[in-house]
Amino acid sequence: MVEEAAQQREAMHLRSKEAVKLWSNTIAGQRQKKIEAKRIREELEEEQRKETDREEARYQEQIRREAIGQAKAQQYYQTDRVKGFHRALLLTEVFKEREAQVELKRRIQNASKELDQEFLKGVKAREDEALKQEQQKALQKKLDTQAVVEEQKIQMRNIEVARSREKLENVKEGEEIQRLCDLHLWEQSVEKQRQVQQKRNIMQAHQEHISNRDVVRGIEEQKQALEDQQRKLFLSAKKKMAQMLRERIVNKLTATQQEKVVNEEETIAKAIGQQEARQAQIRRAEEEKKAAMLKAISEHRETMLLEQEQKELIARQSALDVLQAKQEADRIFLEKQQEKAQKAKEDGRSLQDHYTYQMAEKHLRHQQQKIEQQESQEKNTELIAAEENQFQQYASQVIRAAAEAQRNTLPLSRAAREGLGGGSGPSSAGYLVQDHSGVEMPRYVCSTTQNVKELNEMTDISRAKKRLGFTW
User: Fold this and answer.
1) Buried-most residue among 90, 250, 279, 448 (CB within 10 A)?
2) Whether 418 contacts 84, CB under 8 Å
3) Does residue 150 contact residue 143 with C-beta atoms inside 8 Å?
């Protein structure tokens, strides 16, 4: 029950607030009316500011259009065609002024010279001033023309210097390539000479080894022969000494003991036996010594033969190692040469592909340039036609105004008929010579110029490849 009563009080309170909110004589109502009036006032002020901004924008847009129109008109008046037409207009004014001057002169001649002397001086001063201004204008024009000519000459000289510099760089690059080729050939020749010298050294070392082996063998044979000869001399001398000793003993025994023949014979026999035993022992010792010497000689010979065979084996192994190293070096050199040849072939193929791609790209770029040039010529033709139409309208208005003002319209008509390039038609573009005359250069188109153009502008890639020397 309490909750229901609270909810009823809350609902009644909300209804009261809603009812009071719409009353205008309350503080909250008056505050709400002031806020609403302020909002409406601010909206009106904002709308007025927007309208003022729109008017200002329209005014500024009009000023910009007028400024752009004046700039376009000023730029149009600065074109050579309009300047020439204005020069013709000035010429008509000069003609009119000249006629007025002639008429004035005629009147002056008819009038009294004394009364009009000061007037003639003023007229002459004006004429001199006008003539001086015309001369200054002509001189300034001549100076401007000479400045343009000098600028063009400087540009041509710069172009020639750039071309000569490019040719010199191409020549230097060719010389550098030739120097590298010569250096490569020289390195190949030095390598061949080194290989030939190495072969010659190996052959000479082998021959020296063979000759040294023969010399060693000869020396050993001579040593062996000398030892045999010394041994024979020793044996013969030994035999002679034994014989002499025996004879001496016999003579001694014979001379001293003739009386004791029996005893002496026994003593002699015993002494001879002892002597023979000693001789046999000496011979055995000598034979043992000889056998030991022969054994030592044999062992020394075998040792020398083993050492010689070992040396020959080492020499053969060294020669074999040198031969294998040479074969390996030749194989590596051949592989490197093959790799160089393969790399050179691949480089040549890639260079050919690069040249072909460059030629195709150049051909496409040339075709694109032709298309762009043609489009530019078409746009230029349209622009020339529009300018010509605008100029003819402007010239017609000026000629009509000049005719109404009783001016000589012949220079204006002649200037209106001249083309953009100084020719006879409205779109006959041409070129001027680089001298004080400023006349138009003639245009010659013949078969010779077309042939030169075809030579410099190659359209067929296959013909261009033949010109560069590519036959594959």
Assistant:
1) 279
2) yes
3) no
SS3 440: strand
**Mapping DSSP to helix (H, G, I), strand (E, B) and coil, where does residue 432 land?**
strand
- CA 462 – CA 471 distance, rounded (Å): 9
Cα dist from 62 to 55, 66, 73, 76, whole Å:
10, 6, 16, 21
Give the pair of three-digit tokens for residue 343: 């790399």
DSSP 10-65: HHHHHHHHHHHHT-SSSHHHHHHHHHHHHHHHHHHHHHHHHHHHHHHHHHHHHHHH
Query: Residue 414: how many CA atoms within 13 Å on its side-chain side?
Result: 9
Sequence-distant (6+) residues with CB within 8 A of 197 are: none
Cβ-based neighbours of 457, under 8 Å, separated by 6 or more: 366
Whether the CB-CB separation of 415 and 84 falls below 8 Å is answered with: yes
CA dist 261 → 224, 258, 264 (Å): 50, 6, 5
Residue in the structure block whose two tokens are 């376009």: 72
- For 390-445, write each residue's pLDDT tens digit: 888 888 888 888 888 877 777 777 777 755 444 444 444 444 455 544 444 555 55
Cβ proximity of 429 and 421 under 8 Å: yes
- The helix-helix angle for 261-404 and 117-256 (nearest 10°) equals 170
- A 10 A CB-CB count for 415 gives 23
Q: Name the residue type at position 434.
A: Q
Taking the alpha carbons of 100, 105, 111, 117 in that order, is the dihedral positive or negative? Answer: positive
Distance CA 225, CA 203 (A): 33
Contact 159, 167 (CB under 8 A): no
Q: How far apart are CA 344 and CA 426, in angstroms?
A: 61
Locate tokens 């005014």: which residue?
Answer: 59
Strand, helix or coil for residue 165: helix
Under 8 Å between Cβ of 439 and 423: no
Per-residue pLDDT, 345: 85
Query: Which range has highest mean pLDDT (116-125, 259-268, 361-370)?
Result: 361-370
Distance of CA 412 to the CA centre of its chain: 59
Surface-to-core class of residue 398, CB atoms within 10 Å of its CB (0-12 exposed, 13-18 middle, 19+ buried): buried
Q: What SS3 class is residue 393?
A: helix
pLDDT tens digits, residue range 45-90?
899 988 999 899 899 899 988 888 888 878 877 878 788 888 888 8
Compute how many other C-beta atoms are within 10 angstroms of the C-beta atom of residue 290.
Answer: 14
> What is the spatial distance between Cα 57 and Cα 258, in angstroms, rounded to a whole number?
183
The alpha carbon torsion through 155, 160, 163, 168 (nearest 10 deg) reads -130
